[in-house]
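Pilot study result, target chain (537 residues):
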Amino acid sequence: MATGTLTPPAEPLPEAAAPLPEAPAAAETAPPADDAILTIKDLRTYFYTYDGVVKALDGVSLKIRRGETTGLVGETGCGKSVTAFSVTRLIADPPGRIMGGRVLFDGANLLWRLEGEAKYVTKPNTPRVKVKRYFRRIRAADTRMTAIRGRRISMIFQEPSQAMNPVFSISNQLGEVLLLHRGVEIVGAMLAATPRNPEVGAALDAVVSAATRRQREELIVAARRLGEVTGSESFGTEAYHTARAAPPGAGDLKPRLVRAMARLRVSPSQKRYLEHRRRLMRLQQQLADISLDEMRTEQPKNAARRQVQRKIFSERLRHAYYGLWGIRSRMRRPLNTETFWRTVRLLEGVSIANPAQVARGYPHELSGGMLQRVMIAMALSSDPDVLIADEPTTALDVTIQAQILELMRDLKQRVGTSILLITHDLAVIAEVADRVCVMYAGQIVEQGPVADVFRQPLHPYAQGLLASIPRFDQPDKDLQSIPGSVPNLITPPTGCRFHPRCPHAMPICKGERPPMTVEGPEHTVACYLYTGPVAPD
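Predicted structure:
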């Protein structure tokens, strides 16, 4: 199969901390070939600068299958984060532009009508390119993407401090996401609450009794039971934190809980407001469904969109008085309290100590690791179909890293979420990923099942990455490094972009880009050292 002189290492390649499982048979574990929820084909993203055009992504192709975790690894500057931002169309324009390719999500073409959004004119005798953008079409595409972002495809950003607004509290920002993607469910739960259930009294006594005896586990069970009998899980969370914060022997705990429960008994005017909000949210979901249908069929549905937009305008016009400051604040009070305690539940899920206090705080009051966990809670709040995690554990302690990875694994098993995990940590990839894609200088050079790539890496760049990590079973082994650095993507090397750093470079490597060839069950590599069957496009 190999035509060059590349020989396997004399000793096993570095592995993760835990031994990798034996590679199962492809026929037993490989999902159907068309079972991809996200398919990226020949994706090209450029950045237009005064020095020239930076070809950050130049023909990236990969698939993310339903219920699987796909790892994306490579050096800093190879285009991993740009891939994530291109999928969700969050590339800053200007200076960046998605130039071409296809991004198919569940049958919907996310780059539909991309070619009509800009025109490009190359200036003579200069590397600069003049770009004429049609911002009306760009705004229309951004509106269509609101049907996908957050609700269907969610993202954990690498820099949470830059992704969060410093002037709004944590609960405000998390609550906005909850209302945007799960607002119909939240309002429906508020209207269906049963605070006058005859079992409420006994449940309140159980919470007070557990708090008096300082029995934490018993208090958790009692607060959960209180949430069940009142029909509001968020009130169970509120009762738990209220009881935990009460001093020992506090005699006013039960009256405080009774006063807190008053928010579940909404007045007739507040009920009308909640029903108005639920109707608006349902209409906005219809708009999102129309946008998704447009990208699936690649046909505009202007008539259906205008009809829903007229209904939204009519609904807002008939209830314009809810926009008045005094009325709005009074009507929103129960909804604000409900979303606050739901955000506290989200923060509990990512192991944040004292989540009620954190929810009331602001981003500048939190450390980098705490902000990262808030960002993870925000991304997981809508139970997305695809989760793009851009180095989600970089700013976290080792123990918290394990908890976050376990949380992502639980989401995959419980909801069936597919995950694109971008990281530098090969041990994390070996632990949680099903497939791995190795990226170099804006191109995928090798991809395949994790067990195959870790046990027998084929591309010299993948071999160099695995040879640079330590091993527990060989503590005296010298670590190897890859000479050189990632090339300048304004003037990238011709042919194989890795050939200036490759110890096995041949003359043909400098001429043409090597094709992606099949070297094993679902294991492909772009290298002239191998001449297996050409991988299907």
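One observation from the pilot: The first strand starts at residue 36 and ends at 49. A full batch analysis is planned for the follow-on phase.
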